[in-house]
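Our consortium's second objective concerns turning raw sequence data into structural hypotheses that experimental partners can test. To show how far this objective has progressed, the report includes one record in full. It was chosen at random from the queue rather than selected for favorable results. The single chain below, 499 residues long, was entered without modification.
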Amino acid sequence: MKVALRDDYQVPAVEAVRQALREGARSVLINAPTGSGKTVMASALMELTMEKGRRANFLVDRLSLIQQTSDTFDRYGLAHGVIQSEHPRYRPSLPIQICSVQTLARRGWPDAHVDLVDEAHVLHQTVKDRIASKQSIVIGLTATPFTRGLGKFFERVVNVTTTRWLIDKGWLSPYRIFSCAEPDMTGVAVKSTGEWDDKQASGKALEVVGDVVAEYLKHGDGRKFICSGVDTAHVEELQRQFLAAGINVATYTYKDREEDRADTTLEFRKPNSSIRGLITVTAASRGFDVPDVSCIIMARPLRKSLAEHIQLFGRGLRISEGKTDCLVLDHSGNCARFFQECEGFFDFGINELDDGKTKPKKKEAKAEAEPVKCPHCRALHKPVPACPVCGHEYPRKAAVQHVPGTLKELIAGGHARELARDIFPQIAHYVINTRGREGEAARRMAQALFKDMTGEFARANWDNVTPVPPTSEVLNRIRAQQIRWVKGQQARQRQGVAA
């Protein structure tokens, strides 16, 4: 095998996908954080397909990603063609094809045993139709699996690893967040998508453009950066003020000609690039990989799109020679707005895909601790005794905090983190001793027991959990749930017979 995978997480992830396929799944979603090597794992799966004498397609939804993917395949010696209008590498006879999803929507799909779909959280209709047809095995790749209804198309989800684990192991860069001046979004209209109206949001964001430039001059230290804007008018004003401050930046939007965007990308990728910053709306937030970007400037307020927030965040987390961390300058309020969801996803990944069904309203649970903004340096961080950036010590609270000591107290108080940490390993121990650890059924059983017990799925990674023998309290709860389930089955059978 030419593609070399990392033993600690890429090899197990690829094997988990293969196991899901052996168990009969026809569509599998790989949830892999930015920087974990999605294209590398896809290359390995395509190589395995080719070694069996079968064909495989790799789909991208942006023309700018075709060359990036092609370069990766070339690096691993994977002979391939490209299906995209007038592309010079059009070689349909080769067993591996890189395809533009827009081109496939017009021409139809080339014959293949496996289709790998990049950025699979953006499911085009042609991909949905392909999954429904069951003509091939479809493997999706994403770093943000939050799209509503995604679970209707993918039967299994494989968590490769978590962002936090990759940071701890040195595969991703640590980050520092500074909460800077942000626009007041009071009164801004909300669109049907749940996001703020672009024109009104742009007007608000234009009011703090000067602060965006000033904060970069203060904290940026000449770092290469990507900056998000609300619309092209906002992007162009950001560019104007950065250039006026002597910082060479380029725009990357739909208004720029395709050749100009290609030239900009080529120059920006150079380690010694003359371009310090790239300013965009969304074009450079998905799949745009420039590892030595070490500063992310968030100037586009988002109201609901956690996925867009994490995608932009991820552009600065890749590791590169000489890079020590990623600096996030937040002029949008997004980091505080999505703090708990983002940190939870970085810590635990995801266990279940959204099935598109309306969910019952959740019980009011105890709110998790809000992020802290340092009054000295404006760093945004989890509650800790001292600021991790400047060392400022916060005054200690005099009140004594009650620490729940029983399962009942934990559930009643809505202590999700403590439940996942203390109770899920006990449930895992019971499940593993009952039916073993391997296979999707064991994970589903553990999550079902946890949800029946607590009301929510555990924010914990099944593959990494360390089993702990259950206490008598937890064991009694599990047994009671099992008895209720058996009695329910018997009652349903009696009703069936009576009918």
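The partners drew two points from this record. Residues 407-485 form one domain. The two ends are 58 Å apart (CA to CA). Both points have been shared with the crystallography group to help prioritize constructs.
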